[in-house]
Amino acid sequence: MMKRFQTRLPGALAVLLLTVAVSGVVRADEQTAKAKKEAATGPVYVLTCPEDRSLLTRPQTGDDWKELHRQLDRRARAIIQVVDRSKVDDSLFVDASGVRLHADSAECRELFGSLPQQSESALTMSWLVRDLLGRRYAETGVEPEMIPINNSIAKRCGTTGMVQIKPGDFERKGHYFTSQSAELEERTGDRYRVKMAPFHIDKYKVTNADYCRFLNADNPGYWNWAPWNQSITRDDEGRFAVANGHEKRPVVGVNWYQATGYAKWMGRQLPSEAQWEFAASGTEGRKYPWGNEAPDETRGHFVGKEYADVDAHPAGATPEGIFDLAGNAAEWCADFYDAAYYETAPEGGLIINPTGPKQGVKEWQYRRMFKGFCRTTDTPEFLQCTKRHARPPLLTSAISFRTVKGCG
Known about the structure:
A hairpin with a 5-residue loop joins strand 12 and strand 13. Helices cover 27% and strands 19% of the residues. The protein has 408 residues and is α+β, with helices and mostly antiparallel strands. The longest helix has 29 residues. The protein contains 10 helices and 19 strands. It has 3 domains: 38 residues; 104 residues, no CATH class; 253 residues, paralog of FGE (formylglycine-generating enzyme) (Alpha-Beta Complex), CATH 3.90.1580.10. Strands 9-8-17-16-14-18 form a 6-stranded mixed β-sheet. It is globular and about 60 Å long.
């Protein structure tokens, strides 16, 4: 096409156009190089082999919780350092529980890559991520690096299994309940309206079978072994399988990064707190996902030792047909948590498509939002659509998730 142009234009103008085209390519190359350079800088977590190898054990301090915290902090600071990425060898890393930890030597990579899967006394990788890396994150504010996703199915999964939520708005009434642990707290704030664009949301929570397919698509670093949750296991060949009868139960024991990784694999995202609440409460502001009637055993799985299948309680679905938004397992959202953000009205009393605080707040230890609640209570206040919870993002607990996809 450039040759055709040149045959019709004076020589000087043709040269000028060619120069502009070439300079545009050069600028694009410079921008790409700049982006790569910026990606190669910034703080990351690096594993180091402690001189005192007793730090590779789990502290045994009985009921002295102050001493326990001191021992945990000592281990976290000795084993996990914050280093600029430009000084890190990208070939040395250990992947676990959805996050990538770089290693400062091949010896350290070998040491931490061979930690036992289960032990009551020795350090395990899942325990290191949850209890030690979690402490370093709360102390430094450095966001852990996620493991790159392999074999994404984003191009072919579309919105299969999702429900479309039409655009609309709802009111944040300024009165809600919250829990940062198992305690229930009543809070108040400003009243304002929230306007939402259309989106799709999963009809069901992500199941063990769904998550197992993700792991078997060459994403093994997104698995973590937990003695209390054996719904997904791994064989000697490295393949993952779901325990019989657990296929349709919600995947639990996944931290925020694992949930985010699965969503990216699907070409989706975790819902914002506003998207989740709008899907649960609708424009009319339902108290519970199904309406304003008090919860009972027909509406959801609120108390029990085992988890229920995600489609087991149609009476608890929203009018749009979204199941299991209350009970069975809580659900991660995309947002950082900051109480002031939700309790302060925006200018004009209206906020459009809010995504939560722009960054984590040290006061809340960079916690992430989750909604709904698990199968350990039928206390109505825990199950309301407006209730807000937050947990450390590396926590592995009775939290599941579902995904969303924009309509644009």
